[in-house]
Amino acid sequence: MPWAMVLIASVIGLPLFFEVGIVLLIPVVLMVAKRGNYSLMRIGVPALAGLSVMHALIPPHPGPLVAVDAVKANLGLTLALGVLVAIPTVIIAGPLFSKVAARWVDVQAPERMLPARPSEDLKNRPGFGATLATILLPVVLMLSKALVDIIIDDPAHTVQRVFDVIGSPLIALLAAVIVGMFTLGRPAGFTKDRLSTTVEKGLMPIAGILLIVGAGGGFKQTLIDSGVGQMILDISKDWSIPALLLAWLIAVAIRLATGSATVATISAAGLVAPLAADMSTTHTALLVLAIGSGSVFFSHVNDAGFWLVKEYFGLSVGQTLKTWSVMETIISVVGGGLVLLLSLII
Known about the structure:
Oligomer: single chain
Helix content: over 70%
């Protein structure tokens, strides 16, 4: 069951912001733990790992997307390498670490958070195939663009121009929303009015995401304009340290200071962007992944995700540190280590 949960969380986490994924998955995690008589950590940690790894490493999440733009990385290559790094990372931080976490913190699903009964609001539900295809649609479109760029490699070619449009993150995500109205909404019996209401409700949480991304961009520009970026580059010239490791360390420092993975990714990407000037296309993509890995290092009390996990799982601060915070650190260290390993191979 932990392996199934990490797979479900990873698929759901592809197109969703981390906090949204938690809200959607927590009822499932709690019910599975309760009905299967599992330790909550045995089921919860794999789900959290799947969401967190997708959020840190895989476009179209806001942090990786902004980092790709900042260092001028290839989106499709970053996505492909991100999946390659994400698979072993999520296995180690999810199902494997959950065995240890369940021994450290042996708790059951809190009764107060369990849903009273399954939702009876919908008489019909979308099929699994349609749901999976809709979730994966934006990723497939972006990977298709990268593949067409490699095969054709002619900006004037009609096919490449078409895929440049449909494979861009904004269009790919918009396509998934529109397709979802027909593949998910219609089979569930949604009328036009209900679809319209659902879309309107979905617009409200975007404000918080835009504020986080905007704040991260502003913080990044403040650091750059104040000379912090140049200072880091000047200091690092005398260090015998790989550029990828330096980017990871900078992201770790900002993450610990601000608590936000998105702010850490955006800020670190802006600071290390000059390092990408002399890098190959592959290493520029790995630079984005190094930053993303560092951005999730040791979530603690200044991170909103820390408190979401604590309250939903009914844990104490100490228990959350021993499970959620350690899991985030494992993701960061394993992900960063795999990025460095790949840089030596390719």
